[in-house]
Design brief:
The chain is built from nine helices and seven strands. The chain is of the alpha/beta class. A five-stranded mixed sheet has the order 3-2-1-4-5, with helices on both faces. Helix 4 packs across helix 5. The protein starts with 6 loop residues before the first strand and ends with a helix.
Amino acid sequence: MASYLRGNCIVAQSGSPSAVANASLAGIIQEALQYEEIEEIYGALNGVLGILNEDLLDLTEEKNKTIEALKYTPGAALGSCRFRLTTENKDDLTRVLEVFKAHNIRYFFYIGGNDSMETADKINKAAQEAQYELRVIGVPKAIDNDLSHTDHCPGYGSAIKFLATLVLESGRDTEALATAETASVIEVMGHHTGWLRRRYRPGQEEPRGRAPHHPGARIPFHEEKFIGEVAQSLTRFNRAVIVVGEGLRDAHGKYLSQWAEVSCAMRSTAHNSAASAM
């Protein structure tokens, strides 16, 4: 019988925190403790940055009840990051392997979405090129449900539950302000997908106009049409709760967030020109 790879294990979390990230962390730790081949279990703080900075925790020192409590704890207990390893920067990949070798890491679990899975793949390939025996396991977690080759991503459920509560409470807030027209915009995640936003439909067919009143995230985005539809909601209900995706783009494929950048740049240029003329 072939012998199992013996060494230490490291786990890290990346991307957007969600309740499932900690539940996955608990599962990894509890399962790893069952194998005598895994001698120590480390946690890297703030994703792959914790590995690069050698900022590690010994998770085997944590009490069993603490690990069990992670299953019901929101957020990311080890911290998260938005940092992508690039194949152009070989120094980072070399550094990761240096840290792994220094701590005899033979099992690497990375909890995250598409970028995190890409990072795990790059580390796996770097280890193969260096002929360093390493098992890399990507643990899916994508609250916008866009992780490739999956049906429903763990993380989407907890995110949609939170968003449902947020939309409901925002709707009640605007409903209470009977003497003033109120418009609230709720931005949800999803650069290239709209699963979170598409979970909702306008509530205009209901007598009391339950939120959201306007999905506000159709692609391409048409400013005049959007303003007109919001105006209708304000006329009918005296309020408008709008749910939009962060990946909202215009007919030219430009993100709406870039509109703000252009506007700020124009104002800055105008201000400088006016100052120079004085």
